[in-house]
Write a structure and sequence with these properties.
Rossmann fold; alpha/beta; five-stranded parallel β-sheet; globular
């Protein structure tokens, strides 16, 4: 037997102050945390977050901890549940265990206790036969990318080639403001990351640029979002296939030197797949779809030089990114990325007043949460890029170099 960790923890409590403190403690120690202020919201997040541990307060509005625990026990038997309450243990502990809790604790939880139960209940015993085995194809020293062979969550095809760039092999530049440009370093073969940014299943044509949207191996094909999302996406297979008029999609979409038309089709396929998740299943889905449509607009402009069409496509992307900001539980990292694209796209379309409004809005957001000193690397990266384009502007002409 070996051990692995599912570090996802869901906390349900109607105290926002307590949720903030517990979240900070856990995230600083490497755990991925989602929160809910009542049992109804908590059960909704169970569908999409799939935590290994749920920490649940007993007294909550709309649905109390007892009912939430019973429902989790029925629907998610592999999730550990720790219940806690400010009420005396002699009053509530018996009912907590009767509802299905693995452990009951008295509020407040001291930090060592919280971290102790997090470590205990997120560690999973896995037999060797059940371990995930990721296939990575052999690569040469001068090859600028590594190919991961993944499995499609929809159709089970286990020949999805996902090209992951080796960071030591290229320089990435965002000098245009909305378009990443990749330049190979000395000693590595020439390769354009844009040509393989989106991975496409050769069977059902589900596409994404997030490697986690594909299973590591055929044994682990449990769809990570709700059943409704999978049904919507499954109905879109026919529509996705109509977009591609080739017989051997495996060859076409796995070729690292595929032409511009195929690259554009892959972004359209990814946008088609992402639309099935708009029902709220996936964190940052509007941001992802906005990115797909932006890249498609950029590549389309590189081919047609139609400035009016280009501007209209960018405005469509702005609408998608704007939808992301309307979702209250958008994480800080995704919010930073969303603001980056919104400000860059508004600058690219000449809406400088709106861009400035968004900049002030972002500054107010950081002010409310007490600054960004503890921001993650990715969040700092998007903010650094934002400062650069705010100073240098957005240069659409750079796109023509594609």
């Amino acid at each position: 037997m070996t051990t692995k960790t599912n570090n996802r923890i869901l906390i349900m409590d109607d105290s926002l102050a307590l949720l903030k403190v517990m979240t900070q403690t856990l995230t600083q120690n490497g755990y991925e945390v989602e929160t809910a202020t009542n049992g109804v919201l908590g059960l909704h997040k169970m569908e999409t977050f799939h935590p290994r541990l749920a920490i649940i307060d007993i007294m909550m509005p709309e649905m109390d901890g007892y009912e939430a625990t019973r429902k989790i026990r029925n629907a998610y038997p592999d999730t550990n549940v720790v219940m806690f309450s400010a009420q005396p243990a002699t009053v509530v502990e018996k009912n907590a265990f009767a509802a299905g809790a693995d452990l009951f604790l008295q509020k407040p939880l001291r930090e060592p206790v919280l971290l102790g139960i997090a470590k205990k209940y997120t560690t999973i015993e896995v037999s060797e036969a059940e371990e995930e085995h990721e296939t990575i194809l052999h690569y040469e020293p001068d090859q600028p990318y590594i190919v991961h062979v993944r499995t499609c969550y929809f159709c089970g095809c286990d020949h999805v080639n996902f090209f992951v760039p080796r960071q030591e092999a290229y320089d990435e530049s965002w000098e245009s403001g909305i378009f990443p440009k990749y330049t190979p370093k000395d000693g590595f073969l020439r390769w354009d990351f844009m040509c393989t940014m989106v991975a496409v299943c050769p069977s059902c044509l589900f596409a994404s640029y997030d490697i986690n949207d594909f299973a590591v191996d055929p044994k682990h094909t449990s769809f990570p979002y709700s059943g409704d999302a999978k049904r919507i996406l499954s109905r879109g297979i026919t529509a996705r296939k109509k977009m591609v008029s080739v017989e051997n999609t495996e060859t076409v979409f796995s070729n690292p030197n595929r032409d511009l038309q195929r690259v554009m089709e892959s972004f359209l396929l990814a946008e088609k797949g992402g639309n099935g998740l708009v029902i709220g299943d996936k964190q940052g889905v509007y941001c992802d779809i906005g990115f797909y449509t932006t890249m498609y607009a950029v590549l389309r402009y590189a081919m047609t030089r139609d400035k009016i069409e280009y501007q209209n496509n960018l405005r469509e992307s702005i609408e998608l990114f704007s939808n992301q900001l309307k979702i209250q539980n958008t994480s800080r990292v995704i919010r930073a990325k969303t603001y980056y694209f919104l400000i860059a796209l508004n600058m690219a379309t000449g809406a400088s007043i709106r861009a400035n409004e968004l900049k002030l809005e972002l500054e107010n957001f950081y002010r409310r949460i007490g600054g960004a000193d503890d921001a993650s690397f990715e969040e700092r990266l998007w903010n650094e890029r934002l400062l650069y384009i705010w100073k240098e502007g957005v240069n659409s002409d750079v796109i023509r170099e594609f």
